[in-house]
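Encode chain A's predicted structure.
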Amino acid sequence: MKPKSCILIGAPVDSGKRRTGCLMGPDAYRTAGLAEALDDLNYPVEDMGNLTPASHTLDNLADVGALHALNQTIGWTHRLIRVAEDAMARGIPIFLGGDHSLSLGSVAGVANYAAAKNRPLFVLWLDAHSDFHTPQTTGSGNLHGTPLGYVTGREGFGGFPNISNPVPQENICIIGLRSVDAAERAALEQTNIHRHDMREIDESGIARPLATFLERVAKANGLLHVSLDVDFLDPSFAPAVGTTVPGGTTLREAHLVMEILHDSGLMTSLDLVELNPFLDERGRTAQVMVDLAASAFGRRVFDRPTRAYV
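Encoded structure for chain A:
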């Protein structure tokens, strides 16, 4: 079978947090050779360039003052929902971030497409954080910590597009957790979201929880959206992120996740988020993320290039 087209969607979202720099992420992925890596794997590649947010007039919301760049993030969400729905019909969209608030739109749009096809959507969240806040519960006011709260239909997202197809909690799996605040922890414990922190990974390995989740996706004939945050990795391997949390996955563990995803044949869309090139070391993190994406699309262990960062 001819491989599906990979559709590169630049989403230079930099409104989800106060530390700027993620708007440079999409072009860093291009410079690091993402399109070339996919082409080498025989995938047709379509690059849509970089999007801009839709215009949005700020709603009269009581808590706006506590939130960072609410209006712009709502505009990005509108734009990405529409683009995600359209791109899913043409191939495998790869959303090049941009901070993690882009997933407010990418996941919601993919969920709409899945519903139109009468198939369930599953979400694999590879992240140090659960991102299950709402605009009312976030202590920082940074909306990159809210995507899973939004797409599961939590209340408190006034002004954002209505979620007509919320992702069922039991269809979400978070792997790599190691930084969850008290409010998020309390909320998560009341859900059916599958979550695996780094202690569990240290004790039992990363393959088992992933395989169990993928079995559920396959059994349900589901679509699978994967959201890969740079901080899934330990910052010693991937320093170009504004939310560094020590104790993340190793490069080998991260590649194993990507290789298992490819072997499953289940992934239908992908986010690459939170890359801040301003914080990088000679493009090191951008290259790591491109290499991980290549593994997810079939690059084998012994096909990986040798690289030097000095």
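The domain at 6-303 is CATH 3.40.800.10 (Arginase; Chain A).
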